[in-house]
Design goal:
- The chain is built from 17 helices and seven strands.
- The protein is an alpha/beta fold and 540 residues long.
- The N terminus is likely disordered.
C-alpha cells in the first residue's frame, strides 16, 4: 500500500519541482537582443493592463452608484408630444413583417405618432415592405414608406433624409431585428420633461440567447456593456453612447449636434459624443429591455464586431482632440477616451502574439519567481478583470443561475481571441483612414433554441450568403502557431503558461474551423435548393 501511494505521488512531486526549478536562474545574462524583445513585449502588456484596470473602475462605479436608478422620470407631460418612429431597413426580408407588426401595437395616440419605414433594400424586401406598409395604412396606422435608390451615407444617410419629413418632436429608432415592448414610448417619453435630456437609451435583450453556445457568449458580452458600462457611466455622470436602436432622441438635440453624419461606421456613437459635448444629458433605463436577435454564425458575428470596432476607432480619431480640449471634468475626459479606444488592444494583441514565443525562449533562463513577479500583476490587471467583469454582469441579469457564467468564461475568452485578426484589420483601416462600406449583419427571425439538426433554410438565400475569404485560414494558421508554443512550454517545463496559451489555440482554431464548416453547410444547402428549383422548373 505504501509503495503504491508513493508511486502515485511521485509524478506530482516531479511536477511541483519542475515549477520551482531554478537551475538555470542567473546563468544567462540578458543581452541587447533579449531586451529588444522584452521591452516592447512588456510595454504592450502594460498598455493592455491599463484597459484591464479600467474594467475594475467600471465595476467600482457601478456598485458605488447602483442605487441611483433613472427609470422613473421626475414628472410627466400633461399633453403628450408628437413622436416619429424611424425604422431603417436594408435587405431584411425575414424580419420586416415582425418589426412593422410590433411597432403598430405601440401604446401611443395614433394622431401623435408617425412611423417611417426607411428602406434602402436592393432585394425583394423593397416590394414586400411597400405592400406591408400599404396594408397597415389601410387599417388606419400612421405608416410612411421611403425607399432610396442609393445607399448614400448608409444608415446615417437614411436617418438624416427621414428627418426632412419627420413631424415628431422626438425620434425613436429601431433596427429591423428588434421587437420593442408595447409600452416603450409611454415609459420613455416622460424623461424628456427635463429640457436638458437629449436621449433615452434602453437595454437590449435577446430573442435567441440560448440558440447555441455562440449566441449565449454574445449575450454575455453585450450584457457587460449594457449592465456594467452603461450602468456605471450613466449613474456616475460620465459620457455614454446611444446604441443606434432601442432608444428615443430629442429632434432639437440631433440638429444642435450637427445631425447624422456618415464619416464613421458608428454614427450613433459619433452623434452621442457630439451631443454630450454640447451639454445634452443622456438617460439610461436598464429596467426597460427591448428584445433583439443575435448573429447565430461565427463570421456574421465577427463582421458585426469588426464594424463596431472600426466605427468606434473612427469616432476616436474624429473627436479625441475635441474631447481633450473641452471644458469638462478630467474624469469625464479620461473615461470618454478609454471608452472610444479599447479596440486598439486588438493590434497590440497581435504584437504580443508575435513576440510570445521568442520571449518564452529568452525567459526560460530567468527562473520562476522572477517571471511571476512580473507576470502576476499583469495577469491580475488583464485576465482577472475580464473574468470579474462578465461574471458580475451575468449575475446582475441572471441572479438565480449566475454560476453558469464560470462555465462560459473560457468560451467567452476564446471568442474574444477569435475576433483579434478581423478587428485588428478594422482598427488599422480606421487609423489609416481607409473607407469601407457598411456591411449589414444578416437576421433570420430566429428565436429560442436551435433544433438538433436544423439550420434555417432562409440562410441558403443567395442574398444572405457571406464569404469570409482569407480570414478563417489565417485564424487556423495562428492557432497552429500557438499550438507550437504550447508544445514548447511543456518541453521547457513552463506549465503555468499552458492553460493561458491553450485558450489562444482553441480561440483561433474554433473561429477558423467554425466559419469554414458553416460556410460549407451553407454551400450544401444552397446547392440542394438550386437543384430543387431546377427540378421544379423542368416539370413545367
Amino acid at each position: 500500500m505504501a509503495s503504491a501511494a508513493l508511486a502515485l505521488l511521485l509524478p506530482s512531486h516531479r511536477f511541483v519541482n519542475s515549477l520551482f526549478d531554478d537551475t538555470f536562474a542567473g546563468v544567462h545574462q540578458l543581452g541587447w537582443f533579449d531586451w529588444a524583445l522584452l521591452i516592447p513585449y512588456f510595454s504592450v502588456l502594460i498598455v493592455l493592463s491599463v484597459y484591464g484596470l479600467h474594467r475594475y473602475e467600471i465595476i467600482r462605479n457601478y456598485f458605488k452608484h447602483r442605487k441611483s436608478l433613472l427609470d422613473i422620470p421626475a414628472k410627466e407631460f400633461v399633453r403628450l408630444p408628437r413622436v416619429t418612429v424611424q425604422l431603417p431597413v436594408y435587405n431584411e426580408r425575414f424580419v420586416i413583417e415582425r418589426l412593422i407588426e410590433e411597432i403598430c401595437k405601440m401604446d401611443y395616440p395614433h394622431e401623435l405618432l408617425q412611423i417611417q419605414v426607411l428602406d434602402d433594400s436592393t432585394d425583394d424586401t423593397h416590394l414586400f415592405a411597400a405592400d406591408l406598409v400599404e396594408r397597415y395604412r389601410n387599417l388606419g396606422y400612421p405608416l410612411e414608406y421611403h425607399h432610396r435608390t442609393n445607399r448614400h451615407g448608409f444608415k446615417a444617410g437614411a436617418l438624416q433624409e427621414g428627418l426632412e419629413t419627420a413631424t415628431g418632436e422626438f425620434i425613436a429608432i429601431f433596427d429591423a431585428d428588434f421587437v420593442p415592448p408595447h409600452d416603450f414610448l409611454m415609459r420613455t417619453i416622460h424623461h424628456f420633461t427635463d429640457p436638458k435630456v437629449g436621449v433615452v437609451q434602453t437595454r437590449w435583450s435577446y430573442l435567441n440567447r440560448n440558440y447555441n453556445l455562440l449566441t449565449e457568449v454574445e449575450a454575455m458580452m453585450l450584457d457587460g456593456h449594457f449592465i456594467l458600462e452603461h450602468g456605471a457611466r450613466s449613474r456616475a455622470g460620465l459620457f455614454f453612447n446611444f446604441n443606434g436602436t432601442a432608444g428615443i432622441m430629442r429632434r432639437a438635440m440631433i440638429d444642435d449636434a450637427g445631425g447624422w453624419q456618415h464619416d464613421t461606421l458608428t454614427e450613433d456613437s459619433d452623434l452621442s459624443y457630439r451631443a454630450q459635448l454640447k451639454g445634452w444629458r443622456f438617460v439610461y433605463m436598464p429596467g426597460l429591455d427591448c428584445p433583439s436577435e443575435l448573429p447565430v454564425e461565427m463570421h456574421g458575428f465577427q463582421v458585426q464586431q469588426s464594424r463596431w470596432a472600426k466605427g468606434l476607432t473612427q469616432v476616436a480619431c474624429k473627436l479625441s482632440r475635441q474631447i481633450w480640449n473641452a471644458e469638462i471634468p478630467w474624469r469625464v475626459k479620461i473615461e470618454a477616451l478609454l471608452h472610444l479606444t479599447p479596440n486598439l488592444t486588438y493590434p497590440l494583441m497581435i504584437v504580443v502574439s508575435a513576440l510570445m514565443l521568442p520571449v518564452m525562449i529568452v525567459r526560460f533562463y530567468m527562473g520562476v519567481w522572477q517571471m511571476m513577479l512580473i507576470d502576476f500583476p499583469l495577469i491580475f490587471a488583464s485576465f482577472w478583470s475580464i473574468s470579474a467583469f462578465y461574471v458580475i454582469a451575468y449575475r446582475e441579469v441572471h441572479p438565480q443561475t449566475w454560476k453558469r457564467a464560470f462555465l462560459l468564461l473560457p468560451m467567452l475568452m476564446a471568442v474574444g481571441i477569435g475576433l483579434t485578426l478581423i478587428n485588428t484589420r478594422a482598427v488599422l483601416e480606421a487609423l489609416f483612414g481607409i473607407k469601407t462600406g457598411f456591411v449589414r449583419t444578416p437576421k433570420f427571425a430566429i428565436e429560442g433554441t436551435a433544433p438538433a439538426k436544423h439550420t434555417p433554410a432562409k440562410k441558403s438565400d443567395e442574398q444572405y450568403r457571406r464569404r469570409s475569404g482569407w480570414l478563417p485560414w489565417a485564424e487556423l494558421a495562428v492557432g497552429a502557431y500557438f499550438f507550437v508554443m504550447v508544445v514548447f512550454a511543456i518541453q521547457t517545463l513552463n506549465y503555468l503558461a499552458v492553460p493561458f496559451l491553450s485558450l489562444f489555440v482553441f480561440g483561433y482554431l474554433w473561429a477558423g474551423a467554425t466559419t469554414l464548416y458553416q460556410e460549407h453547410q451553407d454551400r450544401l444547402r444552397w446547392t440542394r435548393a438550386r437543384k430543387l428549383d431546377l427540378q421544379q422548373a423542368s416539370r413545367y
